[in-house]
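Sequence in, structure out. Go.
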Amino acid sequence: MISKLLLILFYLLAPAAILWACRRSKLLGKVGPVLSLYILGVVIANLHIVPEGLGGIQKTLQDVMIPLAIPMMLFSCNLRSLKAGTTIKAFVIGILSVVLMVVGGYLLVGNHLGKDAAAIGATLSGQYTGGAGNFAAVNMMLGKDGLANEQFALVATCNLIVSFFYLMFLMGGGVSIARKIVHGKGLKEHNDSINAADYVNDNPYRDFGKTKSILQLLKVFATSAIVAVISLLVSNLFKEGTTLFDLLGGDFSMVALILTLTTISLLLTSFRQVRSWDKSFDAGMYLIYIFCLAMAMLADLSQLDWRVGFWVLIYQAIIVFGSLVIAVLLAKPFKVDADSTVITSDTLINSPLCVPMIAAAMKNKGAIMVGITNGLAGYAVGNYLGYLIYRLLCIL
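Output:
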């Protein structure tokens, strides 16, 4: 009993410790909390220091965190904000570019990815349109056809490596190249200076202990739990032995669970009070951190196929850098400025959390709203798109 309690406390507190360390250490700050948690989890898993028999707790955390995190992260979406023509066009171009490269990359290297090739492509579709939450949600949606723990950790680690180099490329000259190709002189109206330190070093959890924040978080958690329960009841209608199972010819319960979670959460964003929950997204992200740690602690490196890992890395590089090239090439004929194009690509690949950093490199304060808006819209479509891509890749 004590060992179970200690393990649960570790899962709950380790992300907070990693977040604190990332703010204090330049090296860990560059690595980021997600990769740091993956590394920590994999090290612990392969040292075999967790007593046998506690794997049930880890599996339970995996199953619970995502259904609770998805609503929390979507509550802050405001799809009504997608009104500006440039913002919408940049979003469509960004999504289309990712889809083209996921499918194109699959055709190029899919035969090197093994039996999980379609699942890898599908989960990466979720990752590169919505982020880590969608990556995990799409994998959960695939059920028995999804990635095993070791394979999940491998794909996630490769993704973080490619995404890091992508971010460094943008900050090191990628923005300037895009501006030369698209609209090199059309940015005067967006030349506000911005200090990266004001955003990159910001701690979104600093006031979570205040009474006002606690009351809001209780509302967020209660609403997310209700959404999760309703979605679970809907998913049970698709399980084996039900009429829908016989009608569809298979178990679509996990698909129903994730898509119901996403749809109800988006419907709730029509209420102003729900959209005003400014702590909701960060609370959901913390649950994703816990999920990442739990998943990594079930990864046995001795079971990994590193040859496949090399091709996973190549596949992700094709998607990430290829989608940027396509987006930039499409931007000019569709009259989308370079900054909106690049910030949208960045937010889809790396999540809205990296938007301020790239906006700082651009010295373009006006790009922040475009990036965050399109990033949150990406969270909204990522789960739907991931499943559709999986079905498409299974046909190819």
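Check: The first helix runs from residue 2 to 24. The two ends are 50 Å apart (CA to CA).
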